[in-house]
Amino acid sequence: MKTRSSVSDTGVMRILGDFASAGELDDGTTRQCSSCGATYPSYVPSCYSCNIELGAPVQRSDDSESIDFQAVQPFPFQDVGVRKVMRPRKEISYLDLNTTRDEILRRARTTIHTRYPVCDGSLEELIGLVHIEDVVLADETEFDIQKIIRPLELLPESMPVSEVLGQLQKSGEPIALVVDEYGTVIGMVTVKDVLLKLDKNT
Questions:
Q1: What's the confidence (pLDDT) of residue 199?
Q2: For the purposes of burial, counting CB atoms within 10 Å of the CB of 202, is it exposed (0-12), middle (13-18) or buried (19 or more)?
Q3: What is the spatial distance between Cα 176 and Cα 167, in angstroms, rounded to a whole number?
Q4: pLDDT tier at 36 (50, 70, 90 boundaries)?
């Protein structure tokens, strides 16, 4: 498998507007979750993890990633393998390396995902991850998807769920793909998937 990542829920949000102007989405402010402390761009209405309304917008203090997964702490619960909580491969919505900016935005409106794996033809040729916010802010006339690709975490199917949150914290992204012993992508796991499992076991 080709990948530029090291081993690195898709956050779900309602896609607002028609993406005509990046300024309409990112005004330099953020909103924070009062429960877990995670921070988001101000246009995100509720916390991906806690599903509660975010606080009032405040001016962004630095150029760090919008979502602060340092605030998400691992929780003790009956351990199971990540395969038990992942979404199967057939449910993974991914982008081809040659997908245009307009096509990506249309896909976002349809699937309401904020992050997409990027592949060169198929999931066996994995390149990385694209965040819809980066697509919105990218130059429309000289769009190059390769310039905004981020590393994507790959987790072995044998990894216990109790370790997944820690891995996602390290990567700074709420999504990872799951691979079998041969390196074949078999599914996807998100922070939301893990927290739902936690909720069922508490």
A1: 60
A2: exposed
A3: 9
A4: low
Q: Position of tokens 């330099």?
A: 28
Q: What is the CATH number of the domain that holds 114?
A: 3.10.580.10
**Residue 53, domain member (yes or no):** no
Provide the sign of the torsion angle of the four alpha carbons 119, 120, 124, 128, taken in this order.
negative
Token pair belonging to 173: 């992204």
What does the block give as tokens for 4? 């530029």
Write the CB contacts of 28 (distance below 8 Å, at least 6 apart in sequence). 59, 60
Could you report the per-residue pLDDT of 142-195, keeping only the tens digit for each?
Answer: 999 999 999 999 999 999 887 888 888 888 888 999 999 999 999 999 988 887
Give the C-alpha distances (Å, rounded to integers) separating 129 from 88, 150, 173. 18, 5, 9
Residue 201 CB neighbours (<10 A): 13
- Give the separation between CA 70 and CA 54, rounded to whole angstroms: 17
pLDDT at 186: 96
Instruction: Please give the model's pTM, rounded to 2 decimal places.
Output: 0.61
Give the structural domain span for 188.
Answer: 74-200
